[in-house]
Amino acid sequence: MKQIFNVVLLLLSAFVYAQNDGWHITTQNNEDPYTGIAMSNGRIGILTSAEPFKIKHTVLNNVYDVDPVLKVSQIVHGMDFGNLDVFIDGEQVTSENIVNWSQTIDMKEAAFTTHFDFKGKAKISCTIYALRNLQYTGYIDVKISALEDIYLKVIGKITTPKQYQDPQNTYEVLRDVETTMPILQSIAKTPFGKHVVATSGTFVWHHINSSREQQRPELTHKVASPYENTLSFEYEIKKTKNLEFAWTGAECTTANFSDPKSESERMVIFNLLNSREVLLGGHKALWEKLWEGDILIEGDLKSQQDVRLALYHLYAFGRGDSDLSIAPMGLSLQVPYNGHIFWDTELWMFPPLLLLNQDIARSLVNYRSDRLEPAKERAVNYGFKGAMFPWESDDTGEEATPPFALTGPFEHHITADIGIAFWNYFRVTKNIKWLEDKGYPVMKAVADFWVSRVSKNDDGSYSINNVVGANEFAPNVNDNAFTNGAAITALNFATRAAKELGIIPNAEWEQVANTIRILKFPDGVTKEHADYDGERIKQADVNLLAYPLNIINKEETILKDLQYYEPKLAREGPAMGKSIFAVLYARQGDADNAFRLFKESYVPNQQKPFGALSETATANHSYFATGAGGMLQTVLFGFGGLEISEEGITQKNPILPKQWKSLTLKGIGLDKKTYKIER
Questions:
Q1: Which residues cross the membrane (predicted)?
Q2: Which residues contact 662 (CB under 8 A, 6 or more apart)?
Q3: Domain span including residue 135
Q4: How many distinct structural domains can be found in the chain?
């Protein structure tokens, strides 16, 4: 263990972090490998690039296309409106001819700024925003300070992925009375034709008036190719003078609008005719509201920045007004997992958000309640009752797992995970109207499913046979520990929900819950499934029965299970398992092991230069929002001692690692309570 921890500490030094505060991460290293940060507002995600004035791609939330060959839906990479070509004195600005390059993610204001100098001629900054207040739009703010007289040419672009169908590119100057509104626009069908995407863009001028000296530049339109629509201007900047402008874009689709073409134009016009101060002021105010739920770590700046980056991504990938969920990679990548929704949301991301932002948490559960009917139909199709939620979910609520994967037909614990999340939402919010309208119908259907899913044994107990558990290394097993434990918990929660509403619960729910098997080895260690014999495990399974399920609650058994299963966790598995081990050690009062596992749960997965998380230590797909949820649970439910119970959010036995002077949890629950743990 000591050797592993030394490796972790070594990896800590692999990133260049701003050392001034816990809100900014800065790098001066633009060499490969480079993993960008997703600037997102819960609706669109813009992945940053090391290249000046460039982004990697755009991801559109809940916009799916279906590959007719693979027969699998995929979240859509949208048109990219975030790229500019900039020329100074006829030479294009690239990473090859700039110096003093740096990039900073400002997590407090959700802004990503690149600074650099160009050949002693100009100092340049470029800041990317996915506007929180205007959820289908992005805003790229540019400032160029001339160190000598320079001649500037800027090309704004809408780039359509070449897989798209029937691209159409236009430019039009719209007029209303004396107001002129130049709009660049591209429209195309998604690669397999399910949706139409419309993207509009334009330049916004700051501090340029109609005087002769500071006239707005003339704009030139050019269709560079069917997949690249451009709008450009040229401008002379005198020595010591500045030019400040923005390039703004809006991207709308038929997934959300009957007329995405017109709506994207209106949104760009809105941005064009509002000041930067108004637009960015609204964006910053909403992020300030989000950060009312925060985690402060004193004495360990590195942990503070890591935790903030995790929380930033959960906030960035979710919206409280959307009734949408969060995919494992959020809005950073299309692959892996095609942007589908898994148990990652309910078990890993949802609990931290439930404590810190009930609005986003409500969207996550409402996403499931909105898809209850397809889940009911699926249960019928497989010979069961109630609702059988898909292992991978998309916009339809039907099963979206690739047919070759056994998880689609057999990983059933997702249905229990959803029921558990629903009751926890009620326990924290006490929203009886939501429980009646949305919560209980789902929880009842979940409980009915499990009653129909179990098999009765000769001794009167119940088994759940032929499942894929949380440990996916062991497919098609009987009596998987976590599946059985989750089913027990969901059945008990459904009974409580019925009683809360004055409804007589189905007596079978309690009867089945009380007699589902949890298997043990002769020495008392919990058995992962009926045929388990010490094999490697992909991630925590048995240990989830202690946290968050609280089915195993005796300290002796918890420690036995921890000591048995931690060495069996595969290095190539996802990081969340170690988060669970860390929570459990913290709850047993072992701060050293908890902190060790906290760091091991994410540090090996951090990618240069900002520390974005990949799913595993051997991959570089980022940002892994599931891992963020796991590490945040270690802080909140482990070190912070918080628990979700029938009384709401309570605290029991918080503990600080010796590396921290204090831990402050802000904005917890509906009453925005603050918990501070000090030495």
A1: none
A2: 296, 297, 298, 299, 656, 676, 677, 678, 679
A3: 31-289
A4: 2
